[in-house]
Amino acid sequence: MKKKIRKIFSPLLNMFESGGTEYIYRKSHRNILKILGFLFLILSSGSIYATIKTSQLGGVLPAIVFLLLGFVCEIVAFLGSERAVANIWKST
Q: Which residues of 70-89 are buried (b: 16+ CB within 10 A; e: fewer)?
């Protein structure tokens, strides 16, 4: 199942998995990335809620940005290789 999902998100993962031969990876980087993605998703849902509650379209852009950032963080954290996680943190 994980291989199929990795194949679906391969264009996104390939952006982060390319690079040099050396990188610095720590397990804590992946855990922090999971938490960071979750926080971005919470910010996105809060922004969507506030946009709907106030009926103003000004909150749509932040909601989309936070949603995309959270989505990318979670995909790389759960499906990405050690190199992808290190490239997110620029640990090379």
A: bbbbbbbbebbebbbbbbbe
